[in-house]
Specification:
Radius of gyration: 19 Å
Structural class: alpha/beta
Number of strands: 12
Helix content: 25-40%
Strand content: 15-25%
Distance between the termini: 55 Å
Strand order of the largest sheet: 5-1-2-6-7-8-9-10
Oligomer: single chain
Number of helices: 10
CATH class: Alpha Beta
């Protein structure tokens, strides 16, 4: 059996000889034998297996046993494996076997699933997986229908139930840039956190259509997500104008301190996840920093939010 491996992961494992300025800190693998999802922003949607990319990342194929051997050979290069998947219920039995095989290596293993697979998520956690990421992606019923082509009234209640049962082990993927206002996006973040879930925050990567969000608005969403998860602020204590986040309940030195030297602007997700270059090309400004920020980068990120003097 072959498995797709992110280009950066393959470099770390020695499967590809190349240089990279920021290495992944999690091993990213992809199981996708024909995704039937219709996500507007995904190059592999609608069963497009010809695409070698997911987001901006190239995923070459390698023999699974060889990949596992390299993952488990001391000193182990990764402390976490993230198995990303295409949505296809017909392949769930094979997916379960693969996920359990990876978890049995002793390396913390996460898997990403569709909101329509909450029952599978619970089953995988019971079988020993460490975390499950759920690609909700859109923050409102309207954007969900437009970009996911799925039924919010069915999927959102099922997701809430999953969060109530396993919240601390569930990461909800949200993509800013699908048409949701900052206000609607922040409100969804608050609802997820109130149900014990955590957020993996992405900027829209326009590989199909659309455009990436403005850096200023994305920085505000990062700040809100981080402060909300750390119980420093709540949605109802913030101010919005025409859908834009304008004021937080903390400001000045208190805000700067709460943003923890830039940790608010780093990749969010399961432990040790940094996803370098998922949202931008090398040489572009990072939406999600895959490493600690410099003093200058932190200062610039705070300035971008236009919130420090609120």
């Amino acid at each position: 059996m072959n498995i797709r491996v992110s280009y950066g992961t393959a470099i770390v494992l020695g499967l590809i000889k190349a240089r990279q300025d920021v290495a992944p800190t999690t091993a990213y693998l992809l199981f996708d034998s024909g995704c039937i999802g219709q996500c507007s922003f995904c190059s592999r949607a609608n069963g497009n297996e010809r695409s070698k990319k997911l987001s901006r990342i190239i995923w070459p194929e390698f023999e699974l046993l060889k990949v596992i051997e390299l993952l488990t050979t001391p000193p182990q290069p990764f402390s976490r494996v993230c198995l990303q998947t295409g949505y296809n219920p017909d392949n769930e039995t094979e997916l379960k076997k693969l996920a359990v095989t990876l978890a049995q290596t002793g390396i913390a293993t996460s898997v990403t699933l569709s909101p329509s697979q909450t029952a599978l998520a619970s089953e995988l956690l019971s079988l020993g997986l460490d975390h499950v990421g759920i690609g909700l992606d859109a923050a409102s019923p309207a954007s969900y229908a437009e970009h996911k082509k799925k039924d919010w009234e069915q999927d959102w209640p099922a997701l809430l139930n999953l969060l109530k049962q396993n919240g601390e082990k569930i990461e909800i993927h949200l993509i800013f840039g699908l048409g949701d206002s900052e206000e609607a996006f922040c409100q969804r973040i608050q609802k997820i956190i109130d149900t014990n879930g955590k957020i993996s925050l992405f900027a829209l990567t326009p590989v199909n259509s659309g455009k990436a969000p403005e850096m200023a608005e994305y920085r505000r969403m990062q700040a809100f997500r981080f402060l909300c998860e750390n119980r420093r602020i709540r949605f109802e204590d913030c101010k919005f104008a025409d859908g834009r986040l304008t004021n937080l309940p903390i400001s000045g030195y208190e805000l700067i301190t709460a943003l923890e030297n830039g940790n608010a602007f780093r990749t969010s997700g399961c432990g040790n996840c940094n996803r370098p270059y998922y949202n931008e090309r090398p040489g572009q400004a990072f939406f999600n920093y895959p490493r600690p920020l410099s003093v200058a980068e932190f200062s610039s990120a705070i300035e971008d939010t236009h919130l420090q003097n609120s």
